[in-house]
Write a structure and sequence with these properties.
By secondary structure, the protein is an alpha+beta fold. Helix content is 29%, strand content 23%. Helix 2 packs antiparallel against helix 5. It starts with a helix and ends with a strand.
């Protein structure tokens, strides 16, 4: 009887102890997913990149037709709309007075900046990431090619471009030389 009672007590203690993980409640892990396209949709969308409290965030806007990189950048330069601003989105791209030129061809974009990168990256470089990722996404969407689009950046005052790519998270990384 004593053995049975001991086993019963041990089992109750074991079952009531749980798995050893305390209750922590909800934990903030960043912004929710955004900018995803509806599969099979006949609608056209432009993917613009703005700044949120969590970093770069993709925003999807419905447009009449696929936008080439220049038109997507023109839309980006207008800044976030009222609904996007209400969600806390902003831009770090300074006014560029129409000098930003992007031309897409063969899975790449030639991006000509009217200012030096130092003038575009005040605030940690997010403005440059916004521009590069918006141009790259427009080229990938417009041409239906590989999502890996090389962006050749021509900086004011320099003859030789440097090449980067933007990943799905809005991070810009240099393309290794061949």
């Amino acid at each position: 009887m004593k053995r049975r009672l001991t086993c019963l007590v041990a089992m109750v203690v074991l079952l009531s102890s749980g798995c050893g993980i305390g209750s922590t409640g909800p934990v903030r892990a960043g912004a929710p997913a955004s900018g995803l396209r509806e599969p099979g949709s006949s609608h056209h969308y432009a993917q613009l990149y703005f700044v949120s409290p969590y970093g770069i965030q993709a925003v999807t806007r419905e447009v009449d037709a696929p936008l080439p990189p220049q038109q997507a950048l023109d839309l980006l330069l207008k800044g976030p709309d009222a609904a996007e601003r209400a969600r806390g989105l902003s831009t770090e791209v300074p006014p560029l007075d129409g000098g930003l030129v992007a031309q897409g061809a063969d899975g790449a974009v030639d991006l000509r900046l009217p200012v030096t990168v130092a003038n575009l990256t005040r605030g940690g470089g997010l403005g440059l990431s916004q521009v590069i990722c918006t141009a790259a996404d427009a080229q990938a969407s417009d041409s239906e090619q590989s999502p890996e689009v090389d962006v050749r950046v021509y900086e004011e005052g320099y003859e030789t471009p440097w090449t980067v790519r933007c990943n799905a998270a809005g991070n810009v990384a240099p393309v290794p030389a061949p």
